[in-house]
Amino acid sequence: MFSEKLKILKEKGLLRETKDRASPQGPRIVFGEKEYINFASNDYLGLSTHPYVMNRAKAAVDEFGYGSGASRLLGGGSILHKDLEAKIAQFKGTEAALVFNSGYSANTGIIPVISDEESALFSDELNHASIVDGCRLRKAKTLIFRHKDLDHLNELLNKENVKKKIIVTDTVFSMEGDIAPVKGLFDLCKRYDALLYLDDAHGLGVIGNGGGALKHFNMKPESSIVQMGTFSKAFGSFGAFVAGSSDVIEWIMNTARSFMFSTTLPPCILAASAASLELIDKGSALIGALWTNRNQAAALLEDIGYDIMGSESPIIPLRMGTVENALRVSRHLYGRGIYAPAIRPPTVKEPRIRITVTAAHTAEDIEGLIEALKELKK
Fold this sequence. Notes:
alpha/beta; Aspartate Aminotransferase, domain 1; Aspartate Aminotransferase, domain 2; 2 domains; seven-stranded mixed sheet; three-stranded mixed sheet; 13 strands
């Protein structure tokens, strides 16, 4: 049965395979014995190999060991968990925060418990799969609004007569690289007395001088805003968090199944995340370097005729039109020592090459990408 299904995937150019590095994560990685320039990483600031972050993780292993041994509610947590949560709450300007094991477990755990049968969820059509699944896990009605379309969202909110309305969105969309109209979304929340749930996974450490979406839009945290973020992208670590009012955080801690029934993150991972937070909070020059590289790459890609699909962030998709084109371009780049996988259905409806630029890339890395893509244009 499965062999036939796999055959169909292969015929459609949709069969995937894993590629495992023989090197640390970074702007240059090794597959087998060959080095490639890496344009597929979400390690936006290069912190996964930053000495300060690595040393803090090593020190935590020496002090606390590695494994956590149990769920947080069964005593698996350490003082590093509480310390990181306090630092995140301060960084995000909220009353409290709670650490989760991943962005996926956060969204699938939080969204079902901040809604109920008398709620309606309003979700952007291009939200991440973890948001989609979080909405599916609750019996609340889910309405999909057109991507970043405030007028369409307003129509849906106006028509729906329920006790509780929740708008759910990514802040930086992971496959498009554009930014949600967070200020406009919050204005609609105020008009309809709705809750705003922000997935700031790709915004944290990237936009708002590293502070994320609310700082990007010069907005203050409100009790009606729940913010989720991850440590696995710009922080170069692993895990996630939710930040908000003390009441909502306590409710999530007591009801979110993905928090309650998962062994908690090892202390060394929390130490690494806390170290990255300190670097980002200082307004690290790395954020400036990230945006310098991003703006250079985006301008050069457009100059040589590529459609970057409205990107506003270090995520720069290149429109390919067909699966065949996406695979052909990805193979060409790989042959030139550049790693940039083809993104295909069902991840996205429209095939593309997803370029992610980091602070650790050099001008030569970016120029190498441009020259390889120029060859295809010829």
